[in-house]
Amino acid sequence: MKICFVRRVVPLALIASLLVACSRDPNVRKQKYFQSGQSYFEKGKYREAAIEFINALKIDPDYADAHYQLARTYIKTQQWPRAYQEFTRTIELQPENYPAHADLAKLLIAGGNLRRAKDETDLLLAKWPNHSKSHFMAANLLAAQANFPAAIEEVQKAIALDPNDWDLYLNLALMEMKNNQSDLSEANFKKAIGLNPNAMDARLMLASYYQSRGRFVESEQQLQSAIQSDRKNPEPRAGLARLYLAEGKKAEAEEFLQNAKHDFPDNSVGYRMLGDYYFVTGDLDKALAEYGSLYKEHPKDLQVKKNYIELLILKSHVAEARVLDEEILKSSPNDNEALIYRGQLQLRSGDAGGAASTLQTVTKNDPNNAVAHYHLGAAFQESGNLERAESEWREAVRLRPELFEAQRALALLAMRKGDNATLEQCAAQMINLQPASPEGYALRAVSYINRNRFTEAEEDVSKSIEVAPQSAFGYVQLGNLKFAQKQNKAAATAFQQALDRNDSSSDALRGLMNTYIAQNQVDQAITSANAQISKSPGNSRFYDLLGTVLYRNKKDVKAAEAALNKALELDAYNSDAMVKLGEIQAASGETDQAIAMYQKSLKEHPRQAGVYVLLGQLYESKSQWKKAEDAYQNALAIKPEDPVASNNLANVILHEGGNFDVALSLAQTARRGLPDSADVADTLGWIYYQKGAYRSAISLLQEALSLRLKNKLPENADVHYHLGLAYEKTDQPQLARQQLQQVLKINPNYSDAAEVKKQLARLNS
Predict the structure, then answer these.
(1) pLDDT reading at 409 higher than 90
(2) C-alpha angle with apex 608: 574 to 326, nearest 5 degrees?
């Protein structure tokens, strides 16, 4: 018994020692981590998979299989730079790992690095010529180079090598569509589905193919099949909602998504579909209400919170949006989306400088963030730096040509600058991006109207109305077209049709009032404004329009003041109403009242650069130069590139005999922002005169005169005086005499009339 006992104990000890040895064997441990990572990967738990593959690599940094699987995991989590590093390391360790070469080529193509991708595909075709993946990657590269005929040939070679790979047929169909061979693509979509009835991408793309050709019944059949094959996937339902919209079945789309929402209680994409639908269709009130409800139900869903913040910003609920956004930034200070929201909120609060600083942080951290570039452009525009604004918007569309908002911003800037060719080009891009939107057609119509190309304008106006008959856009431009053609009654009808569709459209009301004024029917213009105010009593711009006509056309100062005060009561940032109210008060000899009004406004809203500019102008009218200088300095502290403040401050410095170099820098800033301003050209020319650069001064002062003529501005004695002195300095007495005589002709009581007469006497002697 004793011997037997000993014989039983010894094997157990041996087994225990072997187990301990195995647990310490690094090869066993790394393999265990690797297999665990593979298990997580197959279950779609990519975060956990990455941790296990990294654990394996800690044991063996040269474990090529772990590097490869970690790269594939990073692809799933969209961590492209890390995936690139891991694929590269895999290939260093296993140069003949051709699947890794193929995956790296795919990543390089997606990232736009086509030169490196070609190296990889050339290697695959040379070393792995009989595998479908090599030809498939070559096809992808050719497609990225827009060489679709050659790409199709390569996919067909891949199919010949692997005729049962459904994904190859799907990609062949897509390339055929790009190569304008859409009739062939349908069969290949169907072939992909035949090989894999659960191929969701193939069904959705075939449905989209049918929808684009108006084959709505067949499109719906594919979408319904997709829904049945994977009821947990929200994308087929989103596709069906889009189909209903394309068919004009808006009510059906809304009801369908309301019901579908309940099928995805734990899927963020699924329960967000209804709110996203409201956003896309422009029903922001419903979108805000829906996301408000979703935020209460899913307070930990970060995407819900971010979308809710975006809607709060769009609906001007600034305070609530700021609280939620700061909560995100408190826990994640470098969250780019939250920083973009902060920039938007700063801009909404009048802090253009702060917004630019915040958004530049994002573009520095993520130079390819097109949305950040777009909003940074808006911040520069608000700061008066249109050159930087345009640069940022162009960068945004370079990074994301489909960014509709950036294309619109460029179009509106071109319209502001009178650049009709660029306006036409940007509007055409908008049409390509959203052919069902009326905006692109309406803006392109503007470019045609401005150039008297009325036939083309009429085509775009008709299209704008056709795609969105309930929108005001098309009818506003129809009104503008008829007004340009001097068909005032037809114009008035069109503007009224626009107001019937959008009773808050200031463009439509302005157009309607202008048609009446053109017919000397000022009372009718006032009546139309009052009628629209009764429908939209909270519209500050309507009171602004009413006040303008009461003052400029009716000469009813008291009524105009009342209307403009109401406009400011409704919107303290309505700078146009403020300018006009100050103009009225100053013209009435109530300069001190105007100053008091601006000071009160600044006390309540201190970051209004435009109000500081107005205040400075009033101080100038009272010859209070130091106060004027301070006001302009305050404006520039808020909007460093503001061209009006820069120009006016330069003039104050000149008047006070200050630093000419500082004045020159300010005038150059103004010139960049207002290249077509006669006043700015005059300021810059006068500075060059003071610095002794007389020929440069003459060039700019001549340009100032030309711009005044071009812009149909009244003659200005100052410009002629400055130009006359510059001619005198360059020994051109006859030209000098002409300019100085013109000064006294324009204004016999010119402030420097005595000096002008003295100069003329000297020239005549």
Answers:
(1) yes
(2) 100
Q: By CB neighbour count within 10 A (0-12 exposed, 13-18 middle, 19+ buried), where does 239 fall?
A: buried
Q: Are 672 and 644 a contacting pair, CB within 8 Å?
A: no
DSSP-based helix, strand, coil % in the chain, nearest 5: 80, 0, 20
User: Which pair of structure tokens corresponds to residue 546?
Assistant: 């009413």
pLDDT band at 284 (very low <50, low <70, confident <90, very high): confident
Q: Which two tokens stand for residue 582?
A: 């100050």
For residues 400 and 370, the answer to whether their CB atoms sit within 8 Å is yes
The residue among 511, 519, 518, 546 whose CA lies nearest residue 530 is: 546
- Give the model confidence (pLDDT) of 511-533 as tens digits: 999 999 999 999 999 999 999 99
Choice between 292 and 17, residue whose per-residue pLDDT is larger: 292
Element (H, E) at 730: none
Average pLDDT for 731-738: 94
| 122 contacts: CB under 8 Å, gap ≥ 6 | none
| Cα gap 249→646, rounded to integer Å | 54
Question: How far apart, in whole angstroms, are the C-alpha atoms of residue 526 and residue 417?
Answer: 30
Of 528, 543, 620, 627, which is closest to residue 581 (Cα–Cα)? Answer: 543
pLDDT of residue 24: 67
Alpha helix segments (H runs only) across 332-385: 336-348, 352-365, 370-382
- 562: pLDDT confidence band, cut at 50, 70 and 90? very high
CB atoms near residue 323 (< 10 Å): 11
> Helices 336-348 and 302-314 sit at what angle, rounded to 10 degrees?
20
Hey, what's the torsion of the CAs at 639, 643, 648, 649, to 10 degrees?
Answer: 50
| 590 neighbors 610 (Cβ within 8 angstroms) | no
- Say how far apart CA 257 and CA 273 lie, in whole Å: 7
By the 8 A CB rule, do 560 and 550 touch?
yes
The tens digit of pLDDT for each residue in 447-456 reads 999 999 999 9
In whole angstroms, give the CA distance from residue 295 to residue 308: 7
Instruction: Give 261's DSSP letter.
Output: G
Q: Are 192 and 166 in contact (CB under 8 A)?
A: yes
- 733-746 vs 753-764: helix crossing angle, rounded to 10: 150
Task: Name the band, by pLDDT with cuts 50, 70 and 90, for residue 1.
Answer: very low
Q: From residue 220, how far is each of 100, 240, 246 by CA, in Å?
A: 39, 7, 12
Q: What is the 3-state secondary structure (H, E, C) of 96-160?
A: CCHHHHHHHHHHHHHCCCHHHHHHHHHHHHHHCCCCHHHHHHHHHHHHHCCCHHHHHHHHHHHHH
pLDDT greater than 60 at residue 220: yes
Question: φ and ψ at 289, to 5 degrees?
Answer: -65, -40
Judge contact between 207 and 226, C-beta under 8 A: yes
Per-residue pLDDT averaged across 163-185, rounded? 91
| pLDDT, average across residues 228-238 | 91
Instruction: With beta carbons less than 8 A apart as the criterion, state whether 763 and 737 touch.
Output: yes
Which residue type does 447 have?
Answer: S
CA–CA dist 497, 472 (Å, integer)? 8
CA distances from 356 to 325, 369, 645 (A): 17, 15, 19
From the list 536, 606, 617, the residue with the least C-alpha distance to 573 is 606
Confidence (pLDDT) at 335: 94
